[in-house]
Amino acid sequence: MKTEEIIQEIRKDVESFNNLCKEYLKIKQDIENTKAKKAVLEKKLHQLKPLDQRKKELLREAWRVETKETQADMITREISQLNERIQELQKQKDVLQERILEAIIDLRFPLDPDSIKMEENYYCISSVEGVSLTSEAYNVISEVLDFDFPLKINKVTLGPDVWKVRAKSQEEALEEIINAIRTIREQAKFRKKVFSELDAFCKRIHRSERYRQIMLLLVSHRRLLPKEVAAKMGLRERVAYDACYNLTRSSLWNPPPVKRERDGSFTLTTFGNLVMQRYMELYGVPSELKEKSKKQVKLG
Predict the structure, then answer these.
(1) Average pLDDT for residues 5-9, to the nearest whole number?
(2) Residues 6+ apart with CB under 8 A from 290
(3) For the whole model, what pTM was predicted?
């Protein structure tokens, strides 16, 4: 069943995927570093701007001259350049994410079926000797498919060298492994389809002050009753209910980003969470959510 030719093909496929994931993580880190630099400048600008403005006014009154560019102006320009850099990096990251999703759909996982054996209450299946997906690759798979890391699917825990399975027999273990691979591929197909639609949803939400506020509130609070939404947005309860309900209607949003629970509260759907994760990438994280994230409130 195993031939050197097949192993070489799998090795080439796996190495290509590992490199793709490495490139993705590098760009992701570049984005984070650029955002951190921008945050420092924004803080400096916030502290500097009032004083800078007063100095500008003083020169206008005392010297009768207009200062063409203040330090605050220079910082503002630098922040603008960083924003352009972030947008460019984000485009590169988006392209890589689509390539990774496409690659996962047909990815050949380098598992050796003859290696399966029982170890400490787990059935373990090893990678083909000398061929393995890196820990970085599994990290990226988890991220783009919205799985927790370390990657675990039902009874299967996936790792660079070994997959571990809770099962009663080798046959059951192999069945669980096959189902895990199928789950990964199906999730990749779903995410690829959804990813191409997310930007349109984000733009639509961003254009509406009311929808934007509701979606951000649900990101922050997870679940809210109409009266709670009304209080937070300064609306009448009926108006808040109608706005929330509109976000649940498949005739207006396909698929809907919000659902109504049995107790009458509203929450984000799985798709709604995907939309808002993408929204944060496109438009940034609002300051109130940044504060909550510091208190370990998970976004999305």
Answers:
(1) 91
(2) none
(3) 0.72
